[in-house]
């Protein structure tokens, strides 16, 4: 597609369940980012991929969160044993540039996946 | 590390009035600065960015921002707003890490 696609757009789950959120970046973009946006807050960085590898995962809050990008395109954010505090909108973005070299590339964001943990 | 402070969480303004959304940043290295906009039920999109050169940068939809290094600010302005400008606006900074965002300012344009 033309833009970044995220599925599902909405996910309601129960506390303790496992959740997967998918991101399909813009074709050809090598950099992929996950951010989390809680109510009333700005996007908070979680993890960044350059190609297939996680170049920076310093934003992942704990070991219940994990993300993969096995073929350097689609990425999946995985959350184990979900907690009510995980409720947020999870944003994915892609870019054609390398951020850790102070690139000037624009990030293109998807519409997000809204996760609600009951 | 970098951080961003958006001084106003909400800004109501009448249609056709001017508006300024304030942003201050903190960084130990030189940075690039961005403003993103999020319309209701849509993803974030880039309004404008400062990389180098002229400190006054122009973006889409008539917005502009001025980089002030001495005051570590990057305030966003528009001389005359429209109803369609109602949205959430995020200031962001990039040093040697991925983008760091402020908490956002909700601009509400009143007819």
Structural write-up:
The complex is a heterodimer of chains A (118) and B (111). With 118 residues, chain A is mostly beta strands. Chain A has no helices and eleven strands. In chain A, strands 2, 4, 5, 6, 9, 10 and 11 form a seven-stranded mixed β-sheet that branches. The relative contact order of chain A is 0.32. The mean pLDDT of chain A is 91. With 111 residues, chain B is mainly β. Chain B contains no helices and twelve strands. In chain B, strands 2, 5, 6, 10, 11 and 12 form a six-stranded mixed β-sheet that branches. A four-stranded antiparallel β-sheet of chain B has the order 3-9-8-7, with no helix packed on it. Chain B has a two-stranded antiparallel ribbon with strand order 1-4. In chain B, strand 5 and strand 6 form a beta hairpin. Chain B is globular, with a radius of gyration of 13 Å.
Name the features.
heterodimer, A: 118 residues, mainly beta, Immunoglobulin-like, 7-stranded mixed beta sheet, 4-stranded antiparallel beta sheet, 11 strands, 47% strand, globular, B: 111 residues, 6-stranded mixed beta sheet, 12 strands
Number of E-state strands of chain B: 12
The CATH architecture of chain B is Sandwich
Query: What is the percentage of strand-forming residues of chain B?
Result: over 45%
Distance between the termini of chain B: 41 Å
- Kindly give the count of domains of chain B: 1
The global form of chain B is: globular
Number of helices of chain B: 0
- Radius of gyration of CA atoms of chain A, rounded to a whole number: 13 Å
CATH level 3 topology of chain A: Immunoglobulin-like
What percentage of residues of chain A falls in helices of 4 or more residues?
under 10%
Q: Helical segment tally of chain A?
A: 0
Largest sheet of chain B: 6 strands, mixed
Helix amount of chain B: under 10%
The SS-based structural class of chain B is mainly beta
> Which secondary-structure class do the elements of chain A indicate?
mainly beta
Uncertain spans of chain A, ≥5 residues at pLDDT below 50? Answer: none
């Amino acid at each position: 597609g033309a833009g970044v696609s995220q599925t599902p757009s909405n996910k309601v789950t129960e506390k303790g369940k496992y959740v997967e959120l998918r991101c399909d970046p813009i074709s050809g973009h090598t950099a992929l980012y996950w951010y989390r946006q809680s109510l009333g807050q700005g996007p908070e960085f979680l993890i960044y991929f350059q190609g297939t590898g996680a170049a920076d995962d310093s934003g992942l809050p704990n070991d219940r969160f994990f993300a993969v990008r096995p073929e350097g395109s689609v990425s999946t954010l995985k959350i184990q044993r979900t907690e009510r505090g995980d409720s947020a909108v999870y944003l994915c973005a892609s870019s054609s540039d390398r951020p850790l070299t102070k690139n000037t590339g624009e990030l293109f964001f998807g519409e997000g996946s809204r996760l609600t943990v009951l | 590390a970098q951080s961003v402070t958006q001084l106003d969480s909400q800004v109501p303004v009448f249609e056709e009035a001017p508006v300024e959304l304030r942003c201050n940043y903190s960084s130990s290295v030189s940075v690039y600065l961005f403003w993103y906009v999020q319309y209701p039920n849509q993803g974030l999109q880039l309004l404008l960015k400062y990389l180098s050169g002229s400190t006054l940068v122009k973006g889409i939809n008539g917005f502009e921002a001025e980089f002030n290094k001495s005051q570590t600010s990057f305030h966003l302005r528009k001389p005359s707003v429209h109803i369609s400008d109602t949205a959430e606006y995020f200031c962001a900074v990039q040093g040697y890490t991925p983008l760091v965002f402020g908490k956002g300012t909700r601009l509400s344009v009143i007819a």
